[in-house]
Amino acid sequence: MTLTSFGPANRIKRSAESHPLTWRLRDDGEAVWLDEYQAKNGYAAARKAFADMAQDDIVQTVKDAGLKGRGGAGFPTGVKWGLMPKDESINIRYLLCNADEMEPNTWKDRMLMEQLPHLLIEGMLISARALKTYRGYIFLRGEYTTAAKHLNRAVEEAKAAGLLGKNILGSGFDFELFVHTGAGRYICGEETALINSLEGRRANPRSKPPFPAAVGVWGKPTCVNNVETLCNVPAIIADGVDWYKSLAREGSEDMGTKLMGFSGKVKNPGLWELPFGVTGRELFEDYAGGMRDGYKLKCWQPGGAGTGFLLPEHLDAQMYAGGIAKVGTRMGTGLAMAVDDSVNMVSLLRNMEEFFSRESCGFCTPCRDGLPWSVKLLRAIENGEGQAGDIETLLGLVGFLGPGKTFCAHAPGAVEPLGSAIKYFRHEFEAGIAPTSAVVPPLARPIVVGA
């Protein structure tokens, strides 16, 4: 898989005016270190924020720009920042960067951290100034060893240049930044589970309220933002609200650009910075090049394994949260996966649900017991041993594990692709029901966790 923001040569040319996240990337894919980053206007936004802007003005600018979280939930960043306490007597606050990126089919944050580590550091520096946080942590997926190496080097470069540490840019503001590698759990992508893990606890989500802005790391006010979200901040501060909003396509309710990609048996799998509002068809045909010879597009997911499947006729939907919602699912991380016509949907879903079942923290009953149940039923159907009523039981689980039914969003994300697969490809599930099977009440079937 190519970690690049390049599209076909005749389609895209990156520039600071149109590609705020990726215009500094090197053609050889090597990391951009401090000298080169500063030569490409790096840290100019931070200098502007420290010299010319009040802290509240930075928050308001990000809010006015319409920046939303890029980790999948899409919560307005400026609104989230505004939840941090205004009480000046609270002098211990934290900024956390969620770099756990364990969503299957998603690798956008990895590219930013490996190739543009100083962009993330600058985004965190400006954000820390706005939020009055004195310490920051990049909570990094443990398997991202190259990203860890590059981030740690970039942190040391920034310290040596007086861009981190004490009295930054002569402002009297102090900010320390640390790279913290996690032990490797999907649930750490949930912000309160991430906080628990950072504190050395089991990575279970916390009950909310209180929200992290009030009670976060070690009981102190904490703001958690995604890597790509924070990397948008320097361009917004440097070039302004109107310019940032102008980047999105007409009709999009989301502002700016987004790292989007396509994986699967497409001709040109990769990652590109594109304006919100491009259609799925543009992403699939013009950038990913369509399916490889001999394969036909069966369905696709718009933004990671936790989003619902869509059909080829849905490719004309605009790629922004509201545009994808109109065709029945979520934008998610914006990195799509193409499923070709050789794939059996039951097998694909069994594989997905095994992953989600394994990654459940086990805190709440619907998720802890419901996901292994779905795996057992899917495995039986996959082997042609399904019983009459199994599909209805699976659909019941989709309802029982849906939004608002579990402690966090893990289970709803896990069953969304299952529900959509049954909706569009029910005949493939029916093919796995044994023809002579009798209807068995769901609770009469033995469920062995991990079986």
Quick overview of this protein structure:
The protein has 451 residues and is of the alpha/beta class. It contains 16 helices and eight strands.
Strand percentage: 5-15%
**Helix/strand order:** HHHHEHHEHEHEHHEEHEHEHHHH
What portion of residues is helical? 25-40%
Tell me, briefly, the overall form. Answer: globular
The name of the CATH architecture of the largest domain is 3-Layer(aba) Sandwich
Rg over C-alpha atoms, rounded to the nearest angstrom:
23 Å
Q: Give the rounded overall mean pLDDT.
A: 92
Number of domains: 3
By DSSP (H or I, 4+ residues per run), the number of helices equals: 16
Strand order of the largest sheet: 3-2-1-4
- Spatial separation of the terminal alpha carbons: 33 Å
Which regions contain 5 or more consecutive residues with pLDDT less than 50? 1-11, 446-451
CATH superfamily of the largest domain: NADH-ubiquinone oxidoreductase 51kDa subunit
Question: What secondary-structure arrangement, pairings included, does this model have?
Answer:
Elements: H1 34-39, H2 44-52, H3 55-65, H4 77-82, E1 94-99, H5 108-115, H6 117-131, E2 135-140, H7 145-160, E3 176-181, H8 191-198, E4 222-226, H9 227-239, H10 241-246, E5 257-263, E6 270-275, H11 280-287, E7 297-301, H12 321-325, E8 335-340, H13 345-359, H14 365-382, H15 390-400, H16 410-430
Helix pairs in contact: 2-6, 2-9, 3-6, 5-6, 5-7, 6-9, 13-14, 13-16, 14-15, 14-16, 15-16
Function: NDH-1 shuttles electrons from NADH, via FMN and iron-sulfur (Fe-S) centers, to quinones in the respiratory chain.
Protein name: NADH-quinone oxidoreductase subunit F
Family: Belongs to the complex I 51 kDa subunit family.
